[in-house]
Amino acid sequence: MAAAGGWWAAACEKFRNAKTLSDVESRKDPETEPYRSKYSARALLQEVKQQLSAAEDCSEPRLLAVRRAVLEFELGVNHTDTEELSAGEEHLQRCTQLLEPHRLNRDCVSLYIQAQNNLGILWSERDEIKTGQTYLESAEALYNQYMKEDGNPPLDPSEHFMAEGEEKLTDQERSKRFEKAYTHTLYYLAQVYQHLEMTEKAAQYCHTTLKRQLEYCGYYPVEWALNAATLSQYYLSKQCFMESRHCLAAASVIFSQAGQVPSSEDNETEQEQQDLRQRKAEIARCWIKYCLNLLQSARKLLEDNVGELDPDRQLELKAQRKKEEDEKENGRKKAVLFGTSDICDSVLAMEEKVSSLYPLDFQEAREIFLVGQNYVQEAKEFFQVDGYVTDHIQIVQDHSALFKVLAFFEEDYERRCKMHKRRIDMLEPLYADLNPQYYLLITRQLQFELADTYYEMMDLKVAIGNRLEELDSHTIKKINSLAQLAIKYYELFLDSLRSPDKVFPEELEEDVLRPAMVAKFHIARLYGKIITSDSKKQLENMQLSFVYYMFLVNYCEKHPDAVHAIETELELSKEMVGLLPARMERLRAKLCPFI
Q1: Which of 57, 79, 102 marks a domain boundary?
Q2: Which family does it belong to (predicted)?
């Protein structure tokens, strides 16, 4: 097609103006007319389309088809931007139909992929995820085929509306724009696979997308950092700690590029600052989960059958450490890692602040704990109890969990007890201020955790007492006090399960079955641990223990499906139900020797 003549220059000018209206001016449109610039852009595109039809020259049919396809694409995007999905789909379909015979040509391939991307998004927004997947996978296949068969930087769609004499894009710029279009394909595919619960594939595509965004400098720092931090949680669920840490380190480094928004009285700027603080706190929360999961996974490896640290296993794992480090290093070379040369050093420096290897002793565990604790403080700076009750409590619960798992590594029982006391000190004030009417689930969580913490402290005090030649009154008083406090919170938890008329449910819901049974079992055991010289009181406590042990046995007889949830507790309860009556009989005989 001959491009000479004033009509072509005018058409190109209108096309450019339409793009400016759509991409730049539309951001300034008032709330009362949110699509004003988009509609103006649409009118200009329609005018160019009419001009193009009037000036058709069949001597260059492919060039004509491509130019018409560019206009159909822009109109399709315009209609979808203004929430007119059916019209948008029609234009995008016409675009792909015009390009179909030439889709592998360097004039057309970039535009075709972008049209497929937009159709994929459009169908996904209609909740037709499978249809969206088809379009996006088609775009992916076309990119791979083109790169294999040609590989030269293709023309950008905007180049089809350049007046004669205008400077074309460089190959470098063409390549950058083409790769950006393909990165969008991968980005949308990652979301589609996530929707389809293909989590492994979603993570793989997300990782590739993030890597490419860095490589081609096509990203917004805050958005990129949040996506990387979110991906870290996937790797965490797979216990891939090295990959999880790398994602988080990269997230922290890239987030720092966002900088601070200058202070201003402008409300929008204040909102932006608030959003930045929130995103920073969200990344901090991902770091907390990383530290907590690493410590908890190490505990599972190191604990014996009663939940204490196994020294033989500890020595065995330490002997394997060198080999493990070598394997990790080799694995790193194969892993898909982020970072261009300018940020690699910063990411590596961030990684060195916390290990990705399982801690095998208290010192190693403490180093990870301290990193997690620092991020707890950072997250709490934004998620304060006034305004973010649920988030704040979840962060404090994670802080408590960090202390709990660190205590596992501590050999000194007194110091371990102090760590659990720290947990009590942070959880009790939160519980006291909560209204269970509005926060029933969190209230139950705190009741159970407080009960469990007092229970652990009581067990530790008993263990300390067992090392003494004779229990002193102070230790006895402490054991009894901790036991009573544990019972109090377990009972509060069990009371929360009752109906409004205070009746305990005949059958427990699946989500509270194990906690309720464990609470009953622990209360039974706690009554057996209370130390008293009063034989009558001792008998009362034994009777109470028997009642709670019996509850577990009777419940599981009525509901056999419950057995799988509490096998160990049930076995011990049956044993105690068999033993306690004889013990109580002997105690009664002592109290009333003449009966």
Answers
A1: 102
A2: Belongs to the KIF-binding protein family.
